[in-house]
């Protein structure tokens, strides 16, 4: 009997436990449970800046001087380089081989090495001039960092023009470039411009006529792979055996809806002796889409009117627009389009001319050098809505620090000593260029911003 | 010529035995001798008032008081100084009671034969009249003492014995001149073999040793003289220590001088070998005395040389003369080979006749039908599967403490899971990854086998055992782990029934405890999340054992966790040092953010039903939203399981339900815990293994119910319930088992390497080649890791790394090198990589669903890397773009000297513990005989 009673008790307890288990689990299902989530480990690392490598355009070249090899390119005149770096910088000069140029001593390039994960600012520019039967005038250009994408807006491939596309690879590995020529037929891949290899630390010279034969106003795009390249264009013009000038121009880095050429200098008035029919020509290209560009010419002298015109653009076809007879003076040309465009201005100065490329906006300190050869002027355009002040600090040398005020929508200039290097610190976005001008000589080049420092990278190890 | 006999009676109070009573008995026996002793010296070792009083009242010529710690040999030696030169010495103690004729017989034998140096009586166990304790001793060739008649019943069978090599020291009568020249007992013998040693020395000195069976001395075996009877644990240890010390010491004393150094060097190895023997024979208690004896003998140079000098001084005959008196191995075996018959309680296993084998075969057929493609595959991939190391050597080096196969300069403990992987991979040494394919094909049959064996602990019915096997193999969590390719969970599920099978018997058998300890290591290695639940169950088991078996078996239960503790100790230490205790719960192996349940009520409901993923074991893919009704198919099992407390075997029922609750509780808890990260993504612990534990409890409780039955239920209920449970589970398993056919399973054919084939080829030749793998995750975020060798491996992953919450010492360096590499063209990054021994850079494609910014970063990083002449592009591969360093990188920084020494000691300790567990688990004839006396079923008093 006691067994049966024990059995009954066991059954009762068992049923109670079973019910208890079900209830407990059910309660645990609906009850909130704590959660724990361990964070992913991350380390934020500031990448080391890249060495600043500036490759110069090199000496002024001449084609067709040698009777035994009409296609050979030779050195016509040296272009001395002005360099400057901040105190403590470790600047080295090295030479790029120039196998396409006969008897060339090479092209100078400069590198400011990273020291303690910082790189010292470096500026360099070269200028050369000569007077010869086939080439005359002054050519100046800044030494530039290499780019993966370069737009050469300038030159001609017509009779009388002996223009040369110069592509230098200052890097350590070979680059492969694709050359696209924009002409009257739109974008064309010329046979000689496909998969062109530029070995490391080498400069190649390609006649523009071989790429864009017959084009009066071409734009050349150079896309690099493997390593960035420094592309430039040397243009020279001979008309009926009279050399009309020479120029070296840098590439434009980026197509954008706004292009500003801040450093147009008109030294010869319209109708004066020696002036050609058209003294100021704007070349503009909308590479991808049809667009309309509004062109404004802002004079340095605020009393003069701002001229404004519209230029319709069809995709891939460069347009040369004459900017009328501008009186002697200094101007900035602003192109605003409803699509990405590239633009530069051809300016004649009697028996010399210059291609003045658009200058990118400067929002942070930038450095530049003033090459020797003619009176050097820094010309600054402020296309913004706020007045800006620019502080100029000499990078090296004994010049004094100066400031320059640029009103909103205006242009300002300051004369700078030859062979000086400067740090330019703007209070707001401005565009700047350096001009070298004198009697029958004209050259200019834009001031580029410092390479943007790559932002911090979050690494999950 | 009559001899004078001087008796030396050593008295030592022992805490437990009534020494005064014993002394009185002995003194009375002495007084009753037919031939009285001529003199009696009582040696009192230790102070005891009543003993002193009793001794003082005895007719002794003197009472010598000595400290309590004085051993017998020394006490006798000191007392023998009082003996007149020509008197024979009779060695007695308070626990030796000579029969009335003893002295007359002994003295008579001494008087009869002048060549006899000493005579020994027949020692009988006190309390009995006819159990022989000792009647002469001899030794084997290796010096081991052999009692000639110990334990035999005295039926006069040895009464014609005379010449022996030696004899027990108790009751020995030694001629005076022999005693003097031999310098008495050797005090270095620690209480054993003193008589044997004296006999051997007497024989070497030209004398003879005789036993006089007619002289009877009863002994209590208190250990005052000679070794104590092995009546409790302390005495067993003391006896083992004394015996082993004496044997080793005698070996050193008797050996020739040339052999001495060899013998000395062999002391420690011999101790280790004998330790293994003790383990195999399930006598772990003797290990400590073994080593104590070895150490004592090895350092007692003085005693050894004293003993040797003593022999050299008195020896007149050669050792060869003793040979006939020694025993041989064959004689020994004949004596020991006796097996008392036992009635086996345990029934036959009936694996074949009971249908177990057939259901396993059927499961194999189902497995092949479910995964037909696997038969053609060389390695398995998908899910949380990574390739295994490409060689057995790599497998085991991955499993050892040291330089980890991932991480810049990570040195640390391996996950114990790596050892499981190594064992598995070593089964197919020609290509270890194949082991996983084999495992997957055999998973279902192995699960049935494990479930069947686990069921033998719960039921004797063949049908129910088959139910157990099927229920275990069709667990939804197991099928999900198979289709989702989660190797650690699969292995854990396959091992859990064996843990149950062994651990449930661990309290009563060292063999089971040893096996359980090994299986526990593997289970916890595969599923660290189970450790808390198993610890709780372990404590419950200890409490139940202590309560129901008066503590017997508790040491065995304690042992079961020891190997796990030792194996996990380095990992635990590393995680605690990193202040990351949560990391210990992290799933081992590849971190994979695969399907799981959400940490909310819906997720917990699925977990309760036994489903570790939201697709309800494949039903969601088959029927969509109606899948939740599939959970009803588990109800029969749960209902039957909940009835277990109502049965006669309610204790088993409660315990098994507690197991189920522990599993479900663990699953609830870990579903909300995310400790591992991969590609900056936190991954929750997969609750599958916890559900396996819960399933174990449920299935076990259900089997208990079905086996024991509930009173007053009709007979047809049991088979009906069993079939209902099985049919429901078979229906439940259909989507999972057809998943590969419907191509909804995660398992796929595996690649040989997670790295590009080029690196894999280089890495196979040189496992030290390092690859930096950078994966862009967003515009300014990358994942960066270093892989050493041909591939990331399943065993090479380390939870210390995958769960770390703060950057390791080398992480800032890795981050800087990565940032410099992808966001700059500076040459320092490559030089830094070379310095660290990294030879390749892989810019991996962003994970699926990454932003466009991540793709942009991929492009810009590729461009920047391309600009370096110190990196040679190998080209685009299936996993990303690959570069090789132009110059040979430096050697990888390995573990430093301290770490290597630590590695070795950690490894040795772990191997020792595992070897001990292994030896314990090896069955011996004795342990098999022992097991036969017990029911296979645990927790059933009716049958046990």
Give the N-terminus to C-terminus distance of chain B in angstroms.
66 Å
Q: Any low-confidence stretches of chain B, pLDDT <50, length ≥5?
A: 337-343
Strand content of chain A: over 45%
Overall strand count of chain A: 38
Terminal Cα span of chain A: 72 Å
Q: Can you give the helix content of chain B as a percent range? A: 40-55%
What structural category do the secondary elements of chain B indicate? alpha+beta
What does this 3D model show about the protein?
Chain A is mainly beta. Chain A has two helices and 38 strands. In chain A, strands 23, 24, 25, 26, 27, 28 and 29 form a seven-stranded antiparallel beta sheet that branches. In chain A, strands 14, 16, 17, 18 and 20 form a five-stranded antiparallel beta sheet that branches. Chain B has about 950 residues and is of the alpha+beta class. Chain B has 34 helices and 22 strands. In chain B, strands 1, 2, 3, 4, 5, 6, 7, 10 and 11 form a nine-stranded mixed beta sheet that branches. The longest helix of chain B is centred in the last third of the chain and has 25 residues, at about 895-920. The interface between A and B is large, with 52 and 69 residues. Strand 1 of chain A pairs parallel with strand 15 (about 675-680) of chain B.
What does the secondary structure layout of this molecule look like, with pairings?
The complex is a heterodimer of chains A (461) and B (944).
Chain A: H1 2-30, E1 36-37, E2 43-45, E3 52-55, E4 60-63, E5 73-77, E6 81-85, E7 91-96, E8 101-102, E9 107-112, E10 114-115, E11 118-119, E12 122-131, E13 136-142, E14 149-153, E15 164-169, E16 175-183, E17 186-188, E18 196-198, E19 202-207, H2 208-211, E20 219-225, E21 230-239, E22 242-250, E23 256-266, E24 280-285, E25 291-299, E26 307-313, E27 319-322, E28 329-348, E29 353-357, E30 366-370, E31 375-382, E32 388-396, E33 402-406, E34 410-416, E35 420-426, E36 431-438, E37 441-446, E38 457-460
Parallel strand pairs in A: 5-8
Antiparallel strand pairs in A: 2-38, 3-9, 4-5, 6-12, 7-9, 10-11, 12-13, 14-20, 15-19, 15-21, 16-17, 16-18, 16-20, 21-22, 23-28, 24-27, 24-28, 25-26, 25-28, 28-29, 30-35, 31-34, 31-36, 32-33, 32-35, 36-37
Chain B: E1 5-11, H1 19-31, E2 39-45, H2 49-56, E3 62-66, H3 72-79, E4 88-93, E5 96-98, H4 102-112, E6 116-125, E7 132-134, E8 137-139, E9 145-147, E10 173-174, H5 176-182, H6 194-204, E11 208-219, H7 233-254, H8 259-280, H9 287-299, H10 301-314, H11 329-336, H12 356-370, E12 380-381, H13 392-399, E13 402-403, E14 411-412, H14 416-425, H15 434-456, H16 462-473, H17 476-483, H18 487-503, H19 510-526, H20 531-548, H21 554-577, H22 601-608, H23 619-623, H24 635-642, H25 650-671, E15 673-678, E16 681-684, H26 688-708, H27 717-737, E17 748-749, H28 757-765, E18 770-778, E19 781-788, H29 799-802, H30 811-823, H31 828-836, E20 838-844, H32 852-866, E21 871-876, E22 880-885, H33 897-921, H34 925-932
Parallel strand pairs in B: 1-2, 1-4, 2-3, 6-11, 18-20
Antiparallel strand pairs in B: 4-10, 5-11, 6-7, 6-10, 8-9, 12-17, 13-14, 15-16, 18-19, 20-22, 21-22
Helix pairs in contact in B: 1-2, 7-9, 7-10, 8-9, 8-33, 12-15, 12-16, 13-14, 14-19, 15-16, 15-18, 16-26, 16-27, 17-26, 17-27, 18-19, 18-26, 19-21, 19-33, 20-21, 20-25, 21-33, 22-25, 24-26, 24-27, 25-26, 30-31
């Amino acid at each position: 009997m006691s067994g049966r009673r024990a059995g009954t008790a066991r059954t009762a307890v068992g049923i109670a436990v079973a019910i208890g288990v079900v209830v407990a689990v059910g309660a645990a299902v609906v009850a909130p449970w704590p959660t724990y989530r361990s964070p992913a480990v991350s380390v934020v690392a500031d990448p080391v800046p890249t060495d600043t490598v500036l490759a110069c355009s090199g000496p002024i070249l001449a084609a067709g001087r040698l009777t035994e090899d009409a296609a050979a390119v030779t050195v016509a005149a040296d272009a001395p380089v002005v360099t400057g770096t901040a105190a403590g910088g470790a600047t080295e000069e090295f030479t790029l081989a120039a196998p396409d140029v006969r008897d060339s001593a090479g092209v100078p390039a400069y590198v400011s090495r990273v020291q303690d994960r910082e790189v010292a600012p470096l500026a360099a520019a070269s200028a050369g001039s000569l007077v010869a039967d086939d080439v005359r005038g002054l050519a100046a250009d800044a030494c530039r960092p290499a780019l993966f994408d370069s737009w050469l807006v300038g030159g001609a491939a017509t009779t009388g023009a002996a223009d040369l596309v110069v592509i230098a690879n200052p890097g350590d590995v070979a680059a492969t470039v694709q050359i696209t020529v924009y002409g009257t037929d739109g974008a064309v891949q010329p046979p000689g411009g496909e998969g062109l290899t530029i070995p490391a630390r080498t400069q190649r010279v390609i006649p523009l006529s071989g790429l864009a034969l017959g084009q009066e106003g071409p734009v050349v795009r150079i896309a690099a792979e493997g390593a960035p390249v420094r592309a430039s264009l040397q243009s020279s013009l001979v008309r009926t055996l009279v050399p009309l000038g020479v120029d070296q121009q840098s590439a434009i880095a980026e197509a954008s809806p706004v292009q500003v050429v801040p450093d147009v200098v008109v030294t010869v008035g319209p109708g004066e002796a020696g002036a050609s029919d058209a003294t100021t020509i704007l070349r503009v290209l909308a590479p991808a889409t049809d667009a309309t560009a509004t062109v404004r010419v802002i004079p340095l002298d605020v009393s003069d009117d701002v001229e404004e015109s519209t230029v319709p653009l069809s995709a891939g076809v460069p347009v040369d627009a004459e900017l009328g007879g501008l009186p002697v003076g200094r101007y900035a040309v602003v192109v605003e389009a409803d699509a990405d465009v590239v633009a530069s201005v051809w300016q004649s100065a009697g028996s010399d001319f210059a291609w003045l490329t658009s200058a990118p906006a400067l929002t942070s300190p930038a450095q530049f050098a003033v090459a020797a050869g003619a009176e050097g002027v820094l010309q600054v355009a402020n296309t913004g809505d706020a007045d800006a002040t620019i502080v100029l600090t000499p990078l090296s040398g004994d010049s004094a620090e100066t400031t320059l005020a640029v009103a909103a929508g205006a242009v300002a200039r300051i004369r700078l000593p030859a062979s000086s290097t400067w740090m330019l610190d703007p209070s707001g976005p401005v565009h700047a260029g350096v001009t070298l001008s004198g009697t029958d000589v004209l050259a200019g080049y834009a001031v580029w911003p410092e390479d943007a420092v790559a932002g911090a990278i979050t690494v999950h190890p | 010529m009559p001899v004078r006999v001087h008796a030396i009676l050593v008295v030592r109070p022992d805490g437990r035995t009534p020494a005064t009573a014993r002394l009185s008995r002995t003194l009375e026996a002495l007084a009753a001798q037919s031939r009285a002793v001529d003199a009696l010296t009582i040696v009192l070792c230790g102070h005891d008032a009543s003993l002193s009083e009793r001794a003082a009242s005895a007719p002794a010529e003197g009472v010598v008081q000595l400290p309590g710690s004085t051993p017998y040999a020394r006490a006798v030696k000191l007392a023998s100084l009082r003996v007149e030169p020509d008197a024979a010495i009779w060695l007695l103690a308070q626990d030796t009671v000579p029969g009335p004729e003893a002295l007359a017989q002994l003295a008579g034998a001494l008087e009869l034969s002048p060549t006899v140096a000493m005579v020994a009586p027949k020692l009988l166990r006190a309390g009995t009249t006819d159990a022989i304790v000792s009647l002469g001793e001899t030794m084997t060739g290796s010096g081991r003492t052999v009692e000639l008649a110990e334990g035999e019943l005295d039926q006069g069978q040895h009464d014609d014995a005379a010449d022996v090599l030696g004899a027990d020291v108790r009751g020995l009568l030694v001629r005076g001149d022999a005693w003097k020249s031999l310098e008495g007992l050797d005090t270095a013998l620690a209480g054993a073999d003193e008589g044997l040693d004296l006999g051997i020395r007497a024989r070497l000195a030209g004398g003879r040793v005789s036993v006089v069976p007619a002289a009877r001395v009863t002994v209590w075996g208190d250990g005052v003289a000679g070794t104590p009877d092995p009546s409790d644990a302390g005495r067993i240890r003391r006896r083992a220590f004394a015996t082993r010390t004496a044997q080793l010491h005698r070996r050193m004393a008797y050996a020739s001088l040339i052999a001495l150094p060899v013998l000395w060097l062999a002391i420690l190895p011999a101790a280790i070998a004998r330790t293994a023997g003790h383990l195999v024979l399930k006598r772990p208690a003797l290990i400590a005395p073994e080593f104590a004896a070895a150490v004592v003998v090895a350092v007692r140079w003085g005693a050894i040389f004293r003993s040797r000098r003593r022999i050299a001084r008195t020896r007149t005959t050669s050792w060869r003369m003793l040979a006939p008196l020694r025993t041989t191995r064959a004689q020994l075996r004949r004596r020991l080979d006796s097996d008392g018959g036992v009635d086996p309680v345990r029934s036959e296993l009936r694996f074949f006749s009971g249908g177990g084998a057939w259901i396993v075969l059927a499961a194999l057929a189902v497995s092949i039908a479910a995964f037909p493609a696997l038969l053609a595959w060389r390695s398995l991939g998908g899910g949380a599967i990574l390739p295994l190391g490409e060689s057995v050597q790599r497998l085991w080096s991955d499993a050892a403490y040291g330089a980890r196969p991932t991480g810049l300069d990570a040195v640390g403990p391996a996950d114990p899971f790596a050892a499981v992987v190594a064992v598995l991979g070593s089964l197919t040494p020609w290509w270890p990854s194949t082991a996983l394919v084999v495992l997957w094909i055999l998973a279902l049959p192995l699960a049935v086998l494990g479930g069947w064996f686990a069921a033998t602990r719960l039921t004797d019915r063949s049908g129910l055992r088959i139910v157990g096997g099927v229920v275990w193999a069709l667990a939804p969590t197991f099928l999900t782990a198979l289709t989702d390719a989660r190797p650690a969970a699969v292995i854990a599920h396959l091992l859990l029934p064996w843990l149950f099978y062994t651990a449930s018997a661990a309290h009563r058998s060292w063999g089971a405890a040893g096996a359980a300890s090994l299986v526990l290591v593997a289970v916890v290695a595969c599923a660290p999340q189970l450790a808390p639940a198993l610890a709780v169950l372990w404590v419950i088991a200890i409490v139940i054992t202590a309560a129901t078996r008066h503590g017997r078996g508790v040491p065995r239960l304690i042992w079961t966790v020891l190997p796990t503790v030792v194996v996990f100790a380095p990992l635990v230490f590393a995680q605690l040092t990193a202040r990351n205790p949560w990391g210990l719960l992290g799933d081992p192996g590849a971190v994979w953010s695969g399907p799981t349940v959400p940490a909310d009520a819906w997720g917990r409901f699925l977990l309760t039903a036994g489903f570790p993923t939201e697709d309800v074991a494949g039903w969601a893919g088959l029927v969509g939203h109606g899948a939740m009704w599939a959970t009803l198919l588990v109800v029969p099992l749960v209902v039957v399981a909940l009835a277990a407390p109502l049965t006669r075997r309610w204790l088993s029922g409660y315990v098994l339900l507690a197991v189920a609750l522990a599993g479900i509780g663990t699953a609830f808890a870990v579903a909300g815990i995310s400790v591992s990260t991969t590609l900056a993504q936190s991954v929750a612990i997969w609750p599958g293994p916890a559900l396996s534990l819960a399933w174990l409890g449920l299935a076990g409780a259900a089997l208990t119910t079905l086996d024991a039955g509930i009173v007053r239920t009709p007979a047809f209920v049991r088979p009906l319930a069993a079939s209902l449970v099985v049919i429901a589970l078979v229906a439940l398993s259909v989507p999972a088992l057809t998943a590969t056919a419907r191509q909804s399973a995660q398992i796929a054919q595996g690649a040989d390497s997670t790295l590009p084939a080029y690196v894999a080829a280089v890495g196979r030749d040189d496992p030290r080649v390092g690859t930096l793998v950078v994966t862009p995750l967003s515009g300014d975020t990358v994942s960066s890791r270093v892989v050493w060798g041909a591939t990331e491996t399943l065993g090479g992953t380390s939870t210390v790394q995958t769960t770390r919450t703060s950057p390791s010492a080398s992480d800032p360096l890795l981050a800087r090198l990565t940032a410099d590499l992808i966001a700059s063209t500076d040459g320092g990054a490559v030089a830094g990589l070379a310095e660290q021994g990294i030879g390749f850079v892989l810019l991996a494609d962003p994970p699926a669903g990454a932003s466009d910014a991540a793709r942009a970063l991929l492009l810009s990083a590729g461009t920047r890397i391309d600009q370096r002449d110190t990196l040679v592009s190998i080209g685009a591969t299936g996993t990303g773009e690959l570069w090789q360093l132009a110059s040979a990188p430096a050697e990888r920084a390995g573990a430093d000297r301290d770490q290597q020494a630590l590695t070795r000691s950690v490894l040795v300790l772990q191997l020792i513990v595992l070897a001990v567990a292994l030896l314990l688990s090896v069955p011996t004839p004795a342990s098999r005989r022992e097991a036969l006396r017990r029911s296979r079923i645990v927790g059933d008093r009716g049958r046990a």
